[in-house]
Amino acid sequence: MAITSAAGIQFNTVTNESSAAADDASQLAPLGFELTVPTANAGEQTWIYVKANGALAAGTVVARGAGTAALTYSDVIPAPTTTGVNGVVGVAVHAIGDNGFGFILKKGVCGVIAGTGTIDVDECIVVDSTDAGTAMRVTAGAGTSLDQGFGWASADAAATATAQCYINCVG
After folding, report:
1. Using an 8 Å Cβ cutoff, are 136 and 126 in contact?
2. Contact 96/14 with Cβ under 8 angstroms?
3. Which end of the chain is more exposed for a tag (fewer CB within 10 A), N or C?
4. Residue 8, phi then psi, degrees to nearest 5
5. Whether the Cβ atoms of residue 40 and residue 92 lie closer than 8 Å to each other
6. Residue 8 and residue 49: Cα distance in Å, rounded?
7. 3-class secondary structure for 115-150?
8. Is the dihedral of CA 104, 105, 109, 111 positive or negative?
9. 152 sits in which H/E element
10. What is the SS3 assignment for 11?
11. How confident is the model over 109-150, as pLDDT tens digits?
């Protein structure tokens, strides 16, 4: 049974700070809480509730922040270029501001930003090795391999464009 809300919060609810000086964004669910939402024709989506350390734009590949305990979601950042599949929490589908709270997509279909490389249809995607928070297709000699993949592209994307992808992240 799919759970589409928890205590009145929806997958697209985002709370951000109202000023740069204050940490006043409201946490509306436990960090790491997962929400499953059915879609019309693309299967179920699994969302995970996080707190951002820095702004997350829609389509950004997200990982845990440096120095963050292994299983907390209180400090997620755009995935660094050294992040493998085990470090990818999900993809931000909605913009979340610095110190803001919201859900990112852990599993399902969404738009993913291509980095300096491209994303090609029917190929595995990995964290871009030169552009934090973005993805690229697995290429020979690029220091990446299929075992670092966190998704599969269903459309092409040139560098810095967005491709439709199916993602399945560890969270």
Report:
1. yes
2. yes
3. N
4. 85, 5
5. no
6. 14
7. CCCCECCCCEEEECCCCCCCEEECCCCCCCCHHHCC
8. positive
9. strand 151-153
10. coil
11. 999 999 988 899 988 998 888 899 999 888 765 556 666 789
Distance CA 89, CA 148 (A): 13
Q: How far is CA 28 from CA 11, 17, 25, 77, 113, in A?
A: 11, 13, 9, 20, 27
Q: What is the pLDDT of residue 52?
A: 92
Which position has the token pair 């969404």? 110
DSSP 9: B
Length of the chain: 171
In this predicted structure, the answer to whether residue 9 has a pLDDT above a threshold of 90 is no
Question: Residue 142: what residue type?
Answer: A
